[in-house]
Structure formats: structure tokens, C-alpha cells
Amino acid sequence: MTTANSYYTPCSCNIHRLLTSDDSFIYITGSQKQSDAAGKAYVAYNIRLGSMESKHRYSEFESLCKALTKLHPTVIVPPIPEKHSIMDYAALQTRVKDDIAMVEKRKRMLQTFLNRVAKHPVLNHDHVFHRFLESGVPWSDVLHSPPLSIMPKNTMQMIVNNDILAARGNSNHILSSHLIPIPSATYILNNPDPQFEESEQFTYRVANYMSNNLEKSQRKVIRRLELANDYAELGAVYNGFSLNEENEVANAIEKIGQAVDASYSNMGEMVTMLEGDFAEPIQEYAQFAHTIKQVLKFRHMKHAQVEMIETSLASKKEHMQELSDMEGEARRLEEAIAREHTIGQNAVNVDDINNGTVDADGNPISAPNGFDPVQSNPYARPPTSPTTSSPSARRASISSPARRRSRYAWSGPMQMVNAVSHTIQGLIDVDPVATRRNQIGKTKDAINILEEALDITQLDLEGISKDVQADLDRFQTEKISDLKDMLLAFAKAHIRYCQKNLESWQEVKDDIDKIPVQF
Amino acid sequence: MAQNHNEFDEVHWDDYSNEPPDQDPGTDTNEWQQDLASSPPASFQSHSDNDIHHEQYTPQPMIISVQDPQKIDSSFVSYLIKTKTSLEAFSSPEPKPVRRRFQDFVWLYDALSNELPACIIPRLPDKYRMKYLKGDRFEPDFIEKRRIGLQWFLDRIANHPLLQVSVHVRIFLESRDFAKDKLVPNQQTNQLVNHRLISSLSDALLRTFAKVRKPEDRFVQMKEALDKLQDNLDVVDRLFARIGKRQLDLGDDYQDFSTSIRGLSVFEAKEGTSQNEIDLKLRKFAETAEAYATTLAQMSKNENLNYHGHIRELLSYCQAAKDQLKERDQKQVDFEEMTLYLQQLTQDRERLLHPGQSIPGSSLHLGEYVADQVYKMKGQNLTQTRRDRLSCIQIKLKELEQEVTVANDVHNMFSDRMVHEYAIFDQIRVKEMKQNLLDYVDRRVDFYKQGMDTWASVLPILESLDDID
């Protein structure tokens, strides 16, 4: 992990110490029903780390998870159990809030969540996370103090990489400038990173697969509690049966009833084990897939942002070029005039040339939409007519097809609006030279901002890409390790189940053998 | 006049050489007597419910197996029947195997029912449930089910001391020209048993609707015991139907699960390309789940076929036993009703002999009395009429007395036979239950052993899942 987040406040608080100590496992020790200010009931979970105890309800866990996600957009934040999954309704068929099994399941999964966060090399340093674990700290306080309170609205406005922040002093809010574009979700990269492209597609497919397929089918296996109940019934039936028989036959049937009963409890035990050690991790991984999608999307958007800034910068630079060209022209003409000292017939108002109302040879140009062009539209250009053959006009007309494009990109209504506004401006604006100088200044500023932003975002993107890749790798390793644990748990649960049943059924054989048969 | 039923305890089988005059003595009866003579005689004197001599119920060694179903001409299925026995009537201890079809079994059942109506004849499979109506007769599962049912059918015959020595059974088991041999005239071996009331008497009795007047405790108990057994078996049967289906569904679920893991392994193959062959290991896991699914499905199918199937067949056998109890009851009813009729007729005669006197223990036979009065009024020769009627009654009485004797004999024979039959039935069903329970347990034990091995085999692979090369 290269760097921590720019909102990362290093702390050496109690919690940090506890997390790095030997006794760093977080337990959810219990739950209680409580009532909030409005009198509504909720469940509060007791959390213990070492000697530190705190209490939080589900919605606060949810809030923590969201906060961490926002604070660390390059990190794959572990998921919390879903609010209400449809499967829970179907399987348990009881009122969700009150159900003990539901609460137990949440306890397990929330505990797993906290420990995953605690194990994460970046997240475990997060002070917001620390404050969550601290006793006596109401979550609302944490929400309303930095860093959560000072975060920009959109993650695209954040600078993730802390080193950049340090190097540039407090240019944290540069990205909040209106000049900096925020890409839309549908933006397609011109120059995408092939590795990440692949990762994105892959993750998308995995997420789909997980949620459709794996979760469903392994749930069915576990839902065979019904079969276990049948065994319980059969055990009782055999018992009843034995009452109507005699001696050895009765004994044998009774023993079979006991073996079947044992099957029932063994199966119940297996289901419980599978639920905790297998089904829940599978659910987590389905959620993880979704989280990874989000992280990759963030990187993608940052990349998009870089491209958009580049585009914007390029266009501003072009405009700058035009403006300085115009400035240059104006100066040369002034000099020429100064040299001549005459205002001849052929003298034209330089500004008219610049305004586009008169071409370089002094011929008037009609405005394209019939309005009298009083003042110039800085983005407008005289239409290239075969008559304009002067070098400057030619040069001006050759450069910037983009400009032309941008001019023609303005549709009719826009032209009207622009013409109107410029007309008005022209009425007010006494000094076109000053306006131009002003525009040059503004454009220069904009270029500076954009350049700096480009620097920042490009660097940031590098850092983000590295961080995301690193966390993906870390995740993959953790996933394989978890997968191993899950599959081992699955296999062992079955072995245990088979073994215990084997023992109880083998015992029965002796009793059946004892049944006397005359021939 | 009704003879005390206890006196007939003295009767041995051999007494049936005294044929009722109207019946044809057939050689068949003699043969049957000979067969019975060769088996240990029933001794009734020391008989009591709790003191059953096992050797009376022990069949001679005989093992029959039903194997190798073959489709013949696409029109029926034939089964290979192999026999091993020490019975001397057979051509050899291991006669050459024969092939029989279901119709032949039906013939055997009918023949035995005719020959030994006092015995509990085991039912053929598929009489309890008309499974063959649904679906294909040649479907392997159905054929296997039927084969197993036929096996139990022949096992029960082999284990029954009377049935196993039946000539019909021998013909069935070893005849090389079955089509011809089976046409041996229908062996009415026991005239007594198939005795049908002379029509002149039968109309005097409301045969079908009468109930036993003096039910015997031991038979009442037998019926209750059979009812209880049937109830228990029934509950197990229904529960197993549910469990069977659920177990099969569970097998399918594991199969689906295995497929999902395989799908996951495809993703992992992409991702961890450099590493430790995660995809291979996941596939191994998927294979394990699949193997478990297969084992489970197999065990479930076998359990259904054998254990569950046996429960159903045993229910059918219980029903056969109950039906036989009813037959026995019917013989008692016949006897009781005939005895009553005899009493009535006797009183009639008494009244004729001694007109006007009240006969102790008889209700006024109104018809006779009115007829008397009418005759008196008509001034006919009472004496003549009375003599006529008297002689008529005498003849009837004589016939009836013989009939009553026969009915009593039949009743006793059935009753005594029933006691044995019940004991044999119980013995057979305990033997069957024991064998089936053992198989049931063995099947489960094998399944769990295999399950353990299957899952244990994948452990080392999983342990190495996160190994770095």
C-alpha cells in the first residue's frame, strides 16, 4: 500500500494501540433490545476490543461502512450483512426484527466485518474506525466532525494521495473549482488502461455469477433442515413401532429409532456449521464483488477526469493562442499606423478587423444571422470565403478546425444569444482592447488552474491505479485464504456428519443381529 | 346336537378318509394326504398358544432366487428362477434353472389358493398398488421393483412348510415343459375345504351377513396384532415416501452445487493464472461434491427399492393374513349358523312327534302351529300329514347332521391351521424384517463410510489451496 488517504489523520490513539497489540480480535459479545428517542425499538450490538467496549446499532454500522467507502475510494471496504435479504424471509418465515436467528446471523457477520477492517493495512489506521470502537463516543459526533464533515460532495473532487497534498500545501480544494469536470458514468475512455479494462469486465462477470448462481444453489443444500425434521419424525415413529413388538425385535427397532434421531441432530449440527462457516462467507463474497466494481469505477472515473481535463486544457490553450495572435496582430497594425501617421482611405479600424466585422483588407463582412455585428464574438471567426486571401486571414483560417467546429457547434439559438449578449456587451463595453486583455488574463488563470489540476490528477491517478491494483492483489490473496477456509469447513462438516452417523448406525447392527430367527 | 368343539381336537388329518357319501373320492385327496403325512403331524393335545413347537413351523431348507429379467419378444419379461432344496420330491437338490413370466406367478398363486385354502398365501407384488398401470411396463426401475417383489413372494413360499411341498410349487420351480405340466387338473385336494353347502340347505342360512357369535380370544388377539403391525408399517411407509423424495432432491442439490463450483473455478483460472492451480483444485472440490451426490442418490434409490419396497410388501402380506382370518371366521359362522338351523329342525321334529307339548328351549314354531290348526280345521288326516312331514324332516335332519359335522370339522381344521399359519407368518415376517433392517443399516453404514472417504480425500487438496509455488 503506497499511501494513505488525504483525509487520513494519523493517530496514536488507544484503539490503534489495541489493534496492533496481541489481543486484537474484535468480538461482538451480545445484543440488546433498546428504544431510541422516538420510542422505537432497535437492537444494539455490544463490541469489545481488549478492554474497550462500545455499543452500536445496525444503522450505525451501515453508516461506518459508507464513511469508510467514501474516505478510501481506492480500498475494497468489507461488506456488512444486508439489511433484509429475501432469503432470510423465505428461510426463516418469521418477523425479521425479533428473530433470534436473524440477530445471531447479524452478530456473526458484523463481527467478521469489524475484523476484516481491523486486518486491512489501510483501513485499520483510520481514525473514524477507531472512534467507532471507542466507548462512549456517539456515532453522530463522529459524523459531524472532521474528516467526515469536511469531505467534498463528490469523490471526484477529492485528492486521494496524501503525498501530493503535502507537496502542494493546501491545494485540497483545487479540484472543487468549477473548471474541473466531473465525468459522467457513461464516459468512454479514449485511451483506456488494458489491464484495468480487463479487471473491470472480469469483476462484472464474477459479480453476476456470484449473485445468481453460487449463492442460490448452496442455499438450497442448507435449507434441507426439512429433511432433518423428517428424520426426527421417523425416529419417533420407530419408537412407537417398537412398543408393539416384543423382546429383541422391539429392542432392535427402538435402537434404529435412536440412530435415526441421531441423524436428525447430526444434520442440524451440520446445517448450523455450514450456515456460519460457508453460507455467510459466500454472501460476503457476492457483496465484495459489488464493492470491487465500485472501486474500479472510481479509478475509471479518475482516468476519465484526467482525459477531460486534458481536453479542456488543450482547448483553453488554443484559445489562448488565438487571443495572443489577435493581440499580436493588433500591435503590429498599431505600429504600422503609427509609422504612417495618416488616416487614409484604406485605413481601417484595427478593432473592426479583430471584431470580424471587416476583413483584413477592409471589406465589411456581414454577420451570418443578419444582426449588425457591433462587437465581436471571441469564439466567432469570419467564414472562409475564397476572397480572403491575405496571409493572416489564411493563417487564421487554417488554424483550429476545432475552433470552427466549436463555432459551428453552437447552434442557431446559441448564436443569437451570443450575438445579443455581445451586442449588449458592446453597448456597455467601451474598450474592446481592455476586454481582450481581460480575457487573456482569465484564460491564463484558467490554464494555470487546469495545468495544476492536470498535474495533480495525473499523479493521483498513478497513485490510485497503484493502490487499487495493490488492494486487488491483497483481496485476491485474502479471498483465496477465505475460500480455502470455507471449503475446508464444508468438507469437514460433512466428514463429521458422516462419522457421527456411521458410529450410531454401526451400533444398531448388533441389536438387529440379536433377533432370533428359527430357520 | 351341536357337538362340543373340543372333541374335535382329537381329530387327526387321517380321518378325512371318511368321505361324505355324495362326494367323489379323488386320487388327489390321497396324494395330498400323503404329502401331509410326510410332514410332521400336528399334535393338538398339547397345543397351547404359548407353547409352539418350532419344528412344526420349520420348513425344509429351500432357497429360491429370482434373477436376470429379460425382455422376450418385446411383449413380456421373463425371470430366471433358480432353486436349491433338500426336498426329495425334486429331481435334484439343484434343479436346472427355469424361466417364468409374471402370468406364471399368477397361475401359481391361484393354484396354491385352491389347493391350500386354509393357508396364508403370500400376495403377488403390484396387487397392493397398481403401479403397472402408470408408465412403461418395460422400464428398468419398474422391472427391478417387480423382480424384488417376486423374490419375496417365492421366499415366503420357500419358508412355509406346507406351501414349499406343494406339487404346484415343484412344477413351477422345475418343470421343463411348464405349459403342459401346469394343466394338471385343478387339484381339488381337500374336498372338505372346498365343500359347498348343498343348495337345499344354503337357502335356509343367511350366510354372508352373519357375524361370529362366539368370537375366540386367540383370533381376536391375532387380528388386533395384525392391525397394529399394519398401522405401524403404514406410518413408516408414508414417512418414507416423503423422505425418499427429499433425499433424492438433496442429491440433486449437491449436483447443482458442484456445477456452481465448477463455474467458479473457470473464473479463478482466469485470475490466478500464475499460481497454484486454484482452478484445478476447485474442480476437484466440485468433483467431490458430485461424487457425494451420486453416492447419496444411489443409497436413496436402493433404500427406496429395498427397504421401503419391503415395507409395502409386508403390508400386503399382513393383509393376506387378515383375509385368512376372515376366511376362518367364515367357517365358524357357517358352522354356527348350521348348528342353529339344526337345532331348529330338531325342535320341529320334536313338536311333530309330540304335538301340543311345549318343547323346552324352543320358541314356538309359528308356521308349524298354524299349519296344524289349519289342517285340524280342514279336518284332514293330521296323522298322515304329520307322518309325511316327519319323514321329510328326518331326511333333512340326517343330511344336516352330516353337514354340521363337516362344517365343524372344517371350522376346526381352519382354526387349528390358522394358529399355525399365524405362527408361520410371524416367523417369516420377523425373518424378513431382520434381513431388511440389516440391509437398511448396512446400506447406511456404507454410505457414511464412503461419504467420509470422499470428503477426506479432498482435504489435502484444499489445504494446499493458498500455497504459493
From TrEMBL, chain A:
GO molecular function: phosphatidylinositol binding
Keyword terms of this UniProt record: Autophagy, Endosome, Lipid-binding, Membrane, Protein transport, Transport
Biased composition (Polar residues): 348-357
Localization in the cell: Endosome membrane
Signal sequence segment: none
Domain (PX) ranges: 1-139
Family: Belongs to the sorting nexin family.
Listed name of the protein: PX domain-containing protein
Organism: Hesseltinella vesiculosa
Automatic annotation (TrEMBL), chain B:
Molecular function via GO: phosphatidylinositol binding
Annotated signal sequence range: none
Ranges of biased composition (kind: Basic and acidic residues): 1-15
Localization per record: Cytoplasm; Endomembrane system
PROSITE patterns membership: PX
GO biological process: one example: piecemeal microautophagy of the nucleus
Keywords: Cytoplasm, Lipid-binding, Membrane, Transport
Biased composition (Polar residues): 26-47
Annotated segments matching region Disordered: 1-54
Mode of membrane association: Peripheral membrane protein
Cross-referenced InterPro entries: AH/BAR_dom_sf, PX_dom, PX_dom_sf, Vps5_C
One Pfam family recorded for the sequence: PX
Gene3D superfamilies tied to this protein: Arfaptin homology (AH) domain/BAR domain, Phox-like domain
Domain PX per the UniProt entry, residue ranges: 57-180
GO cellular component: early endosome; phagophore assembly site
Recorded family membership: Belongs to the sorting nexin family.
PANTHER family in alphabetical order: SORTING NEXIN-4 (PTHR45949:SF2)
Protein name: Sorting nexin-4
